[in-house]
Structure formats: C-alpha cells, structure tokens
Design a protein that fits this description.
Helices cover about 80% and strands about 0% of the residues. By secondary structure, it is mainly α. The longest helix is centred in the last third of the chain and has 27 residues.
C-alpha cells in the first residue's frame, strides 16, 4: 500500500495531505479565533490584516490536526471512525505529512509574528505543541487528556485578541474560558457515543473509569453548569452588556438541559443529543459576540 501511495498523482497526494488538516473542523476553530480578533478591532483597522490572521490561524490549526494524525496513525487504523484517514489508508507517507506540518506551522507562526506580534505567534505555536505532543499521547494514558486538550482548544479566541491588542485582553480571556468549559461536555459526549470504538484502541476519555454511567454524566452536568454564571460574572465586572449576557445564559441553560437529560437517562441516544447541543451552543454564542459589535 505504501508503494502505491508513493506513485499517486501529485494532485491526489495534495488532497490527502489537506485531508490530514481536517479543513471543516479547522474552519470552526479558526472562526472562534476570528471572533476574538473581530470584537476588539479598533476603528479604521485594515481588514486585510484580519484576512491574514484567518489564513495564519488556519495554517496552524491544520498543522495541529495533521500532526495529531501522524502520531495516532497506528491506532487510527483500529477504529471505525478513523480507519479511512489518509495515513492508515497509505494515501500519503508520514515523512510527507511531517513536511506538510512543518510548512503550515512555519507559515502560520511567522505570519502571526511579522504581521501581528510575538506573543500571538508564541501562543499560536504553543497551542499546536500542546495539542499534538501532550494531549495526543496522553489520550492513551489518562482521561485527563480532555483537560489538557481543552487548553489548546480554547486558545484560538485568545490568540485573536492578542493579535489585535498585543495583550491578554479580558474579552479574550472570557472567550477562552467559555470555549474551555464548553469542550468538556462536547468531547465527553463524543467519547460516550464512540465508546466502543475508543475502547478498541484502548483509549478512555470519559471522566470516570466506570464508563458510560450516571457518574460520568454527573461530571458533564457540572461543566455545563459553569457556563451559566460565567457570563453573569463578566456582566457584573462591566465586561459584557445585559443583552449579550442574557443570550449566553440562555445558551448555557440550553446546553445544561441536554446534559441533565443524559444524567437522568444515561444512554447513547441522549449523548448524541448533547453532542448536537454542543454544536449549537458554540457557534451561536460566538455569533452573539459579533452581533454585539455590529448592531
């Protein structure tokens, strides 16, 4: 299979490498970074710089996803949900993927450094390394990997804020915290739905060793609950206006509702519902921040 991959046309090879970067998933991550930058744009800021930021963020995010697949190529072939990825199928070689990652990381990191600032570049590359070199191998050892993975997963909006303000701006920190706590129920719902698949690769991501039980569901509820008072606290410090605060509180209650449903009836059907609720919470929550600036 390896020899076949080596003789593929260059276009097919490029397509396989791009697939390593998970373009659709990366776009969602980059959108959160865009929001972190957009909500802090000063009047008269050149919009071309915002386009450059999105491009650089996309490069780093795709590099992180591709790096993750290089490291996990052996276990990806064991799971149904990942066995059709380019590396297990032999559509590209690890050395080719490493070069692809290096190019993307260099473009993204250097772009953030020269067009924005050193802190944005540092945090951007740090998120890549945390995700690929800490979170990815830790998945095989402990469910604490979700905690570690939530950090790079929440950094994009903070990086966006840093790129514009050159500091750890409170809005960037708030967006980081929202995305940080959002990730736990999101990933645990996925781990619940794909429990048998992860088990096949000896990966345990649910918060309790008991697996798909009410105890694990209780952990999920606790993290969704945090998303209700968090915007209220931000409002009390003058960071958020009332309308945006109320919108985020309603979204937090919506998210918590599906976590409670899973707690009451811990089964795969309700875990899927929670997973879809997580897909609704984040983009709408981020959109509310944009609307607060635009309207």
């Amino acid at each position: 299979m390896d020899s076949i991959a080596l003789h593929q046309p260059w276009l097919a090879k490029l397509k396989a490498l791009i697939a390593l970067g998970k373009v659709k998933l990366s776009a969602m991550v980059v959108f959160s970074g865009f929001v972190g930058a957009f909500v802090l744009l000063p009047i008269g800021y050149p919009l071309v710089n915002l386009v450059i930021f999105v491009f650089c963020s996309m490069a780093i995010t795709m590099a992180a996803n591709a790096f993750n697949q290089i490291i996990e190529r052996d276990i990806d072939g064991l799971m149904h949900r990942t066995r059709n990825r380019p590396l297990p199928l032999g559509q590209c070689q690890p050395w080719e993927a490493y070069i692809f990652v290096g190019l993307l990381a260099s473009i993204g990191g250097l772009g953030l450094y020269f067009f924005f600032n050193a802190l944005a570049a540092f945090v951007g590359l740090l998120s890549l390394l945390l995700y690929a070199l800490v979170y990815t191998p830790l998945k095989r050892v402990s469910s604490l990997a979700v905690l570690v993975g939530a950090i790079p997963g929440a950094l994009p909006p903070l990086i966006g804020a840093i790129a514009i303000t050159e500091e750890l701006h409170p809005i960037g920190i708030l967006l980081f915290m929202i995305q940080f706590f959002w990730q736990f129920p999101h990933f645990w719902a996925i781990a619940w739905v794909s429990f048998e698949d992860y088990k096949r690769a000896d990966i345990m991501l649910l918060p309790n060793a008991s697996g798909r039980t009410r105890i694990s569901a209780m952990h999920i509820v606790l993290y969704t609950l945090v998303l209700i008072p968090l915007p209220v606290f931000a409002y009390s410090t003058g960071l958020l206006p009332m309308v945006l605060t109320l919108g985020l509180v309603v979204l937090g209650a919506f998210y918590t509702l599906f976590a409670l449903i899973l707690f009451m009836k811990p089964n795969t059907v309700n875990a899927k519902k929670l997973m879809f609720a997580s897909f609704i919470y984040l983009p709408i929550g981020l959109a509310l921040f944009i609307l607060n600036v635009v309207l």
